[in-house]
Design brief:
Layout: H1 20-27, E1 33-39, E2 48-54, H2 73-86, E3 89-95, H3 97-103, H4 105-118, E4 126-129, E5 141-143, H5 152-175, H6 181-184, H7 190-199
Helix pairs in contact: 2-5, 3-4
């Protein structure tokens, strides 16, 4: 099925993200394509966060979208605001550390992704996701290795998830000083590990993770 939507590549110097996968989905007849990604899988502290983003390809999509890890904090903040304004729909979901400890990080990540999809105002008919097969979801999906460096929709989701999770961890840093959370965002830096050794874990630490359990 054809489409009159503008589907330029949006490829910028230094960025491999474009709309190739979104365009292929539209050419196959899908009309509401969601990009999906997560952040926080490897952290020792705090939740895993997933975001889903749906763009209307007939409207302007922000330039500069790329894998959140390749952007500065200020770039992510600016792009996140642009993505929220430009997206047809978006949703963000968290799964807490206690659930991660109970069901394991992979299943918790899948749950966060399902919640992000279910949180959209309208159900998508196709999902582009970053390398994780989402079980118990009846929507067709394409799993793209390093998708956050290849698909604009997935990269946009990675930016929203990163900004939301980083903001949460920075707020929790005020409640749990001493772990350097404002800088490490819950990941296993030497300062974080030293604090765990001297202070012990907080209620937000993942006690089944190496480095927390000792």
């Amino acid at each position: 099925m054809g489409t009159s939507c503008f589907l330029g590549s949006l490829r910028e110097r230094g960025s491999s993200c474009d709309l190739t996968f979104e365009r292929l989905a539209l050419e196959q007849g899908y009309r509401r394509v969601a990009g999906l990604d997560e952040v926080g899988r490897g952290a020792l502290f705090g939740p895993v966060c997933a975001a889903a983003v749906v763009f209307d390809m007939a409207h302007t999509i922000p330039i500069g979208i790329n894998d959140s890890k390749k952007l500065s904090a200020n770039q992510r903040l600016q792009l996140a605001e642009s993505i929220r304004r430009a997206a047809e729909d978006f949703s963000i979901a968290f799964v807490e550390s206690s659930v991660i400890d109970r069901i394991n990080i992979l299943e918790a990540t899948r749950e966060a992704m399902r919640q992000a999809i279910n949180g959209l105002k309208q159900k998508p008919d196709y999902i582009l996701c970053d390398g994780i097969v989402i079980t118990n979801l009846s929507i067709p999906q394409k799993n793209i290795i390093r998708g956050d460096t290849r698909s604009v929709s997935i990269a946009a989701a990675s930016i929203l998830a990163k900004v939301e999770r980083d903001g949460l961890i920075s707020r929790l840093d005020l409640d749990y000083p001493g772990y350097d959370l404002g800088n490490n965002k819950g990941y296993a830096t030497s300062k974080h590990l030293q604090a765990l050794n001297s202070l012990g874990p907080t209620p937000y630490h993942r006690v089944t993770f190496r480095g927390v359990r000792g």
